[in-house]
Design goal:
Layout (H helix, E strand, L loop, with lengths): L2 H6 L5 E3 L10 H6 L3 E3 L6 H16 L2 H9 L19 E5 L3 H14 L2 E5 L5 H6 L3 E2 L3 H6 L3 E4 L13 H6 L5 E4 L8 H9 L5 E4 L19 E3 L8 H19 L18
Parallel strand pairs: 1-2, 3-4, 3-6, 4-5, 6-7, 7-8, 8-9
Helix pairs in contact: 3-5
């Protein structure tokens, strides 16, 4: 949804993002044309957090590789190559301590007795401590001390390809990377090299740099990668939540109650 659309849609009042992310909407252009942008913070947080945990378990216990070995190759004794590791008392580093990151921290801390490190310049150490999370102020400290790294931040231009060769070199050789945020956070060529050369143990990606991805994406050739088609929020519960909040927010705006909606470009509220 870009400048062209906003310039042509003269009667447009509101654009609702069916989810948290608004990187597919030119919010500055919306503001310029006095169009409110609303989203659904928290509506899919549980679903995405659970997806991250599912990916962590699948990576650690080599579930996908085992399934392919038995179902496709009929190789029962491939299980000798499927010796995995537990999540219990390992360390997870969460990049982005918003609502998804907070729910993920709770599951990992309470469910698996994991040590949780959190990086988020917008969340205080005191608040993180209340969630049983240790705040780290340097990305390098999060990366080098974690057995699992989960990206749970919005995409901003300054975070473009933040997971690069230097980032991956800091990770433990036994560590796993999970991305259920945005594909543009990762330099996929650097990740491919790290996975192929066993610089890191594995990765689970619900999002890719290009969506839909090209069939010849080299990441698809690696056995230590799990990929899914951007489905972390695609649970019935979260879809219902996002749909309801989106519809209510549109109604709030059209009925002159925009202050009740989850408005992204809040500066417009003062002019309504």
């Amino acid at each position: 949804i870009d400048e062209y659309i906003f310039s042509k849609a003269k009667r447009l009042k509101v654009v609702a993002s069916h989810g948290v992310g608004t990187d597919h909407i030119d919010v500055d252009a919306a503001t310029k044309h006095n169009v409110l942008v609303v989203n659904t913070p928290g509506a899919n947080a549980e679903s995405v957090a659970e997806m991250v945990v599912g990916m962590m378990i699948a990576l650690s216990r080599k579930i996908v590789a085992g399934d392919i070995a038995l179902r496709v190759n009929k190789d029962f004794y491939y299980r000798n190559n499927c010796i995995g590791s537990d999540l219990f008392k390992k360390t997870i580093g969460i990049f982005g301590m918003g609502q998804i990151g907070q729910r993920l921290a709770r599951i990992c801390s309470m469910g698996f007795s994991m040590k949780v490190l959190g990086y988020d310049p917008y969340v205080s150490a005191k608040k993180m401590l209340e969630m049983n999370v240790t705040k780290v102020n340097k990305i390098e400290d999060l990366v080098s001390n974690s057995d699992y790294i989960s990206l749970n931040c919005p995409y901003f231009e300054e975070l473009h390809k933040m997971v690069n060769e230097d980032f991956l070199k800091l990770m433990k050789p036994s560590a796993f990377l999970i991305n259920c945020a945005r594909g543009q956070l990762i330099d996929e060529q650097a990740l491919y090299n790290a996975l192929k050369n066993k610089t890191i143990a594995g990765a689970a990606l619900d999002v890719l740099y290009e969506e839909p991805p090209k069939p010849d994406n080299p990441l698809f050739t690696l056995p230590n990668v799990i990929t899914t088609p951007h489905i972390a929020a695609y649970a019935k519960d979260s879809i219902d939540n996002m749909s309801l909040i989106s519809a209510l927010d549109v109604l709030h705006v059209l009925n002159g109650n925009a202050e009740k909606a989850h408005v992204v470009n809040k500066e417009l509220l003062t002019s309504l």
